[in-house]
Protein 1
Amino acid sequence: MRSILVQRRDVREDLLDRIDRLEHVFRNPVVPTASERSKGIPLKFDYDRTVEASLSTVWSVLTDPAAMKPHLPGTATVVSTGSDSYRVSIKIRMGFLRPTVNANVHLSNIDELRGFTIELSGKSMGAGVSTNAKMTLTGTGGDSGGTAVQMVGSVETSGILKKVADSKIETAAVGFLESYFASIESAGSPN
């Protein structure tokens, strides 16, 4: 009987310790403060994914505006604006609002079928975002195999987006990329 009471006390103390740690996390979240965000501290990110599509297919849907369009959500448009540049107009969901975001995209440091640098800047409803990232592609098994995609860079926000936690911006960006690459995979898979 004594050992059961000791175990219950240990379990209770363990639970109380966990509750204290959770309360501490909620009271002290690890996100930049408004003053840090206003100083222009960019969000750093590193995204890795293997896409079950050939290297040439992934290259095409990342660099050719015509090949991108079927994989973008809803009524998105992609228009070429010059050599290695295009403009994407896309409706996004922000709570009950669905603003259209217009983003200018430019590719540089292009190494055919290996990678490039992507620069993106867009604005909508008093908020802005700019991204600079290095995109690296690696085939994982011939032209019919998968493609490893790595994206490393930073995101800077302006306007009302400065008040949004980095974790929410990162979640939205990863969600968009996952949806985009899943669309590429499903387009290449037999029905």
Protein 2
Amino acid sequence: MDTGFSGFVSMPIIEAFPLGLILCGTTTTILADGSQSFKLTAVGTAFIEKEEQAGIILLNVGSGPSDVLVGMEFLKTFRKTLFVHDQVVALLDTDEVNKWVSAAALEASKLLSTAIPEPGLHEIQAASLVSEAKE
């Protein structure tokens, strides 16, 4: 997993040949250092357990990573969220993560609403004290 790679999958072209990937075009990518790199592209299918999704695979010709990389488009396509904590790295279902985040936000708002007075309450109390002092 390369979080700096916005694409679906990137792999060396030498590893693509045995897979029989179908070439579909070319592209130029911009690397982290600002340089540009020419890539062939192919259509391919990736699997996570029993789910399969098609996407564009960048083929590294000569330069580029020598490993197969999955990028952020891979996560988006499979609706996965990368979770990293201490020694744990996991792919979680994005819909489940969204439920957890919503539940946590709701709980936090409940806690905040009981800890923070209603807007204007201090002003009403202050006005009442000033009124009583004048009488």
Protein 3
Amino acid sequence: MAHLIEQMAYVGQIPWHGLGNELTSNQPLDVWAKQAGLDWQIQESPVRFVTNAGSPLGEILSYPDSKVLYRSDTKAPLSVVGNRFKVVQPEEILEFYVSANKPAPTFQLTDCTHSEIVNRVVQVSGFKQHIY
């Protein structure tokens, strides 16, 4: 799986594969986003296709029930999803894990301390995102 890692960041022990940018504890979200390769947005566009009927160049049509998700920095396509799909931005995922590490009245979602996300991995052009 290490061959799929484009960029990542970690705190503490170097991962088994030796890849990534080492960060010190309690770094702000913008540092994590940049060092982990998450300083981009997920953009969306209507699905369009070209038919070969009617003219040599074809006709451009839309498929109204779906949209294409793509990276804002590289314009690489990520997926085709339905129109009701709610996009969650990479930075929102980081914010969730940081806020989840603050003490809650009844439970905590992780064992990490505030802002101490151990590994943040971007795989396969950013579509698969894993937090360890």
